Structures are given as C-alpha cells and as structure tokens.
Amino acid sequence: MRVLVVEDEQLLADAVATGLRREAMAVDVVYDGAAALERVEVNDYDVVVLDRDLPLVHGDDVCRRIVELGLSTRVLMLTASGDVSDRVEGLELGADDYLPKPFAFKELVARVRALGRRATAPLPPVLERAGIRLDPNRREVFRDGRQIQLAPKEFAVLEVLMRSEGTVVSAEQLLEKAWDENADPFTNVVRVTVMTLRRKLGEPPVIVTVPGSGYRI
C-alpha cells in the first residue's frame, strides 16, 4: 500500500510516516498543501493522510482536488478540532474518514488499512494462494501452516503479488507500490527483495519470474 502523509507539524508527520513504514507501507511525506497537490497529480496513492489546516493550500482544497481528479485514492482527514460540525464538513468535502488529534497510532493504522482496502477491488481480509496465507492486519505470513518472518519490504512485495491474483506484476509496479518516491528506479532493489523473499518462502518456489514482464504467484 502506498500512502501520502500531509502534515505541517514536521515531527508528527515524520513520526507517522516512520510508524506506517514499519507496518510495511510505502510512505511519502510533505508539509504543505501545495506540495500535496503536486504529489497526488503525479503518484498513485491508495490513501492520503491529510491534515486539514495546512499552509500554502488548505487541506479542504487538497481534498476537493483529489475528488475532482476522480482518483481512487482515499482520504483520511486529520484536524485538531473535535467538533462534530467540522467532521461533517470534512466528510462533505469528499474525505472518506475523519480522525481528530490527538489520536492513537493503532487507530490511525487501522483506519488507513481499512481505507486502503476500499481503494482497490474487494478482496478477502486474509489473502491465500499457492499454500501461502497472508494477513495484512496482523502482518503474518504462513506457508503450509509454517509461519514465516518477513522484513517490511518483503511483506509489502508479497502482499502486492498476492493481491494481483495470479496476474503479472512488473518491477516498476512493485517499486511504485512497495517503495516511496525516494527509491531509485534504476536500482536492483526489487530483484534482490524478490530473491530474498523466494528463499524465505522455501521450496518449491511460488514466485515465478516472467522474462521481460515481471513476477507472479
């Protein structure tokens, strides 16, 4: 899942981004509304965590623009105000969910994951294919009943492949979904991660390389 965090309190923004990355999400961070508009018009995000009171361009206007663009991106709006009228107004702008500050990080993660599921075609909450069972919420992976410990990026790559339901996923698509905008598109990080993932999943191999196209399970 790829997430954009838009928050002008830099310490909070960076802390949220770090926590979401530990949950195997690819996260970009910006600190004002103008930068947010630039990102959403270029990158494909599943969820935008959007502070309402932003400098340069207000969060309301960012939300309106996402709706105008007709994106599948879901918006979780944050605000320091807990007033019911503010929550209603934010939802009427097109936000998909609303979370007042201060918030519990576990709740933020749960809401982001729920919105991420709504940004894609409906799938079971637990993904199963080729003897692999992947639970995104618990961040657990089993193969034939054996639990497998994966690093966040390995988990993210496996989740993308599982969600593709047997279709081929290119290295570029994996880079887009599992890494943030700082990833070098010319690096071999995808190939190395897939190799490590194959080794951890064990024999017989379940990740198939399709020459010139990408990978599938």
TrEMBL record:
Every Response regulatory domain range: 2-116
Q: Which residues carry this modification: 4-aspartylphosphate?
A: D51
- Name the keywords, alphabetized: DNA-binding, Phosphoprotein
Give start-end ranges for the coiled-coil region(s).
Answer: none
- Protein name per Swiss-Prot or TrEMBL: Response regulator transcription factor
Chain ranges of the OmpR/PhoB-type domain: 124-217
Query: Record's superkingdom?
Result: Bacteria
Q: Which residues bind DNA?
A: 124-217
Listed InterPro entries: CheY-like_superfamily, OmpR/PhoB-type_DNA-bd, Sig_transdc_resp-reg_receiver, WalR-like, WH-like_DNA-bd_sf
What Pfam families does the record tag this protein with?
A: Response_reg, Trans_reg_C
> What PANTHER family is this protein classified in?
REGULATOR OF RPOS, TRANSCRIPTIONAL REGULATORY PROTEIN CUTR
Q: Which SUPFAM superfamilies match?
A: CheY-like
Q: Tell me the organism.
A: Streptomyces macrosporus
